Each structure stands twice: as C-alpha cells, then as structure tokens.
UniProtKB/TrEMBL annotation:
Name this polypeptide is given: V-set and transmembrane domain-containing protein 5
InterPro entries according to UniProt: Ig-like_dom_sf (IPR036179), Ig-like_fold (IPR013783)
Keyword match Transmembrane: yes
Gene3D superfamilies linked to this entry: Immunoglobulins
Bilayer-spanning residue ranges: 133-155
Length: 183
C-alpha cells in the first residue's frame, strides 16, 4: 500500500530541490479550433521563470517565457493564441492540427535550479464527411422530390388536355353547327 501511495505522490508532484510542478492531467485531446488549458501549479523558492516549449518530431519551438508579475515574453508565432497564468499554467486557443505534440514546461528558480514537466496534446481533425454525406443525400432527395412534382404537374396538364380534346371530339352538335352555317 505504501508503494501505491508513494507512486501517486510522484505522479502528481515532480520535485527537484524546492521546485514542484503539480499537473492534474498530462495527456490532453482536443479538436481543431478548440482551446486547451495546460493546468499546472508551480511552487518554488522566489519568483520562478516559466518557459513553455513545443516539441513534435524534429521541431522544437519556444512558446514563451515569463516571470509572474515581472515580465511576459510570448513568441510572435503564439502571441495571439497563448494566455500565460501566474501559477505557470498556459492557455492555447484556436488549435490547429499541427499543434499536436509534446509541451514542456521548464521552471527555473532564481538560484538556477530547474525542473521540467511535459504534457501530450493530441489534436483531432473535425471530420465533416458525415455532414457532407447527409447534405448530399438531402440534396439528392430534394431534387428527386422536385422531379416527381414536376412530372406529376406535367402529367396532370396532359391529362386535362386529353380529356378536353376527347370531349370536343365526342360533341356531335359542334360539327353540325359548322356544317349548317356553311350552307
């Protein structure tokens, strides 16, 4: 039982010296155009320097560095989408497919000691195939209904003309009237 409790403690708190980084969730999944919040709680001696870095494959980019209450420096690539927080957390808005990867927070004390913790972000592409299939099916059914209505209207017109033509043909008085007036 002590091993389980000890393991949980180290899973929630990564400590080096006096630095601790507490993060309730290390693996996150979001969809394109959603927002994500990398929740951490940093504790250390003095004012920490917090740096977030993005890594994916061979790419490694610094997102931003800040000291709570002192300065904030977010890179140009992320300046419109990143929100830094005093406790070390970071919000990233309007996710793109290429935002999926590994996010590392590095906390550095004024003494120079530092500690890293990582988060994995999976960004799902919103699949519109189902919506496209549904809209194409609805459009096809609407066209079919339109064609059926048009054919019913044309058949009704043809039926009325045929009925009128037969009535004229069956009227014996009309032919006699024409013949009498000619004489």
């Amino acid at each position: 039982m002590d091993r389980i409790a000890h393991f949980r403690l180290h899973a929630e708190f990564k400590t080096t010296g006096a630095i601790s980084i507490n993060s309730p969730q290390r693996s996150l999944t979001r969809s394109v155009q959603e927002d994500v919040f990398f929740s951490v709680d940093v504790a250390c001696i003095g004012i920490p320097t917090i740096q977030w870095t993005f890594m994916s494959g061979a790419v490694s980019r610094t997102i931003g560095t800040w000291q709570p209450g002192v300065y904030t420096n977010i890179t140009v690539d992320y300046s419109s989408r990143v929100q830094p927080y005093r406790n070390g957390s970071m919000g990233l808005s309007d996710l793109r497919l290429q935002d999926g990867g590994y996010y590392v927070i590095t906390v550095t004390e004024t003494t120079g000691n530092s500690k890293d913790a990582g988060h994995v972000l999976k960004v799902n592409e919103v699949l519109y195939e189902d919506l496209q299939y549904l809209s194409v099916s609805a459009l096809a059914l609407a066209c079919l209904a339109g064609l059926l209505m048009l054919s019913m209207w044309l058949l009704d017109k043809a039926y009325r003309k045929i009925v009128a033509w037969r009535r004229r043909k069956q009227m014996p008085g009309k032919a006699n009237v024409k013949n009498k007036s000619v004489k």
